[in-house]
Design goal:
One of its GO terms (biological process) is iron-sulfur cluster assembly. This protein is mostly beta strands and 380 residues long. 14% of the residues lie in helices and 44% in strands. Helix 3 runs antiparallel to helix 4. The chain is globular, with a radius of gyration of 21 Å.
């Protein structure tokens, strides 16, 4: 008997559904989940403890012209319009969230300062679910900062709709308490000539798994994604991306950098770019770099390109993981700089380009201070 060969599914063929029951239970052997310690998800993948903890609360103080921040119920047309889950935790989060935080930017609005929202966890005694919708109107230009902190076991989805000719800089910061767990999906939909810059910072938590996806609805869309992550001993930080080029003449550029220190620190970066047959004229590039500061840390990095047309401007990827450069350290120390300060200088330089993308000086300085404190602690 001749065996039937079943070709692997492409990213375009993957299941998408709002119903958790449509996704099989996870066992850890799936390609998408082989790096994730499922037991440490604490119910985010199986839903056994759904609704047992209070959802996150939101703090925001600005009253900016053209900006509305509030809540919408699941029956609102914008709830679920952009993001259709393609994994079980995302579907569970959609099913478990009855309301969403709405950040709405009106047509042609150009706020003078970033829209800043704090997302504060409600505890680690059970699973909570959250949902956020960011709706940027045509020709608007805005920066939005979402800072996530406190204790949480949280599954959440973030939908980002950027209309034609709009400009959005979105900064998401995951600085959870040490025992916290998060599984998050951030989905962008770009209109014609829309420009998005996403800066994703991950520092806290026990396990943080963040999935970012982007798609285009018109020509000229431009998506840039920058990631900065720092894992200490025992932390698991996982970043997965899918940029789905579905229309001609769009661009994407992805740059993620991570530092790791301490026994059991583990980071995972998987970057997928899909260029469909009709997406001629695509220009895309993705790169991931990891800096391992001590023994016992591990970084996995997997860039992928799936190309269905040869008519592209450019398509490339790169990945590099290395240890702290002793030559750089020796050079600085030979000029009278102490070893701890030399290490801080090298790591600051490693992250400087990404921190500069954050459009808020106070936040940049605060994140730099957190990174410095971690480097100082490991040297003590």
């Amino acid at each position: 008997m001749t065996a039937t060969v079943i070709p692997p599914k492409t990213r375009a063929q993957e299941l998408r559904s709002y119903e958790p029951a449509d996704f099989p239970a996870l066992n850890g052997r799936e390609e998408e989940w082989r790096f994730t310690p499922l037991k440490r998800l604490l119910g985010l993948a199986d839903g056994d403890a759904a609704g047992a903890a209070a959802g996150p609360r939101h703090e925001y103080a600005q009253n900016l012209p053209g900006v509305t921040v509030g809540e919408i119920a699941k029956g609102d047309a914008r709830f679920g319009a952009t993001l259709v889950p393609f994994d079980r935790p995302s579907a569970l989060a959609y099913a478990g969230a009855e309301k969403a935080l709405l950040i709405e930017i009106g047509r042609e609005a150009v706020p003078a300062e970033p829209v800043s929202v704090r997302v504060i966890g409600g505890g680690v005694d059970g699973v909570a679910h959250g949902h956020t919708v960011i709706d940027v109107g045509p020709m608007a230009e805005v920066a939005v900062i979402l800072e996530q902190s406190g204790p949480a076991v949280l599954g959440d989805n973030v939908e980002v709709l950027v209309a034609d000719s709009a400009r959005l800089t979105l900064v998401t910061v995951a600085d959870w308490d040490r025992e916290s767990v998060q599984a998050q999906h951030v989905k962008f939909r770009l209109g014609r000539d829309a420009k998005v810059t996403h800066v994703q910072v991950t520092l806290g938590g026990d396990l943080v798994r963040q999935y970012t996806s982007a798609e285009y609805t018109g020509r000229g869309g431009d998506f840039e994604s920058f990631g900065l992550y720092f894992a200490d001993a025992g932390q698991h930080q996982e970043h997965r991306l899918l940029v789905d080029h579905t229309v001609p003449d769009c661009r994407s550029h992805v740059t993620y950098r991570g530092a790791l220190q301490g026994e059991g620190a583990h980071t995972v970066w998987v970057g997928d770019v899909l260029i469909r047959t009709e997406a001629t004229g695509t220009d895309t590039y993705e790169i991931n770099r990891n800096l391992i500061l001590t023994d016992g840390a591990r970084a996995d990095s997997i860039p992928n390109l799936e190309i269905e047309t040869g008519e592209v401007v450019g398509a490339g990827h790169a990945s590099a993981t290395g240890r702290f450069d002793d030559e750089h350290l020796f050079y600085l120390m030979s000029r009278g700089i102490t070893e701890p300060e030399a290490r801080r200088l090298v790591v600051r330089g490693f992250f400087a380009e990404l921190l500069a993308k954050i459009p808020a000086e106070e936040l940049r300085e605060r994140l730099s201070a957190v990174i410095d404190a971690r480097l100082t602690a490991v040297g003590e």
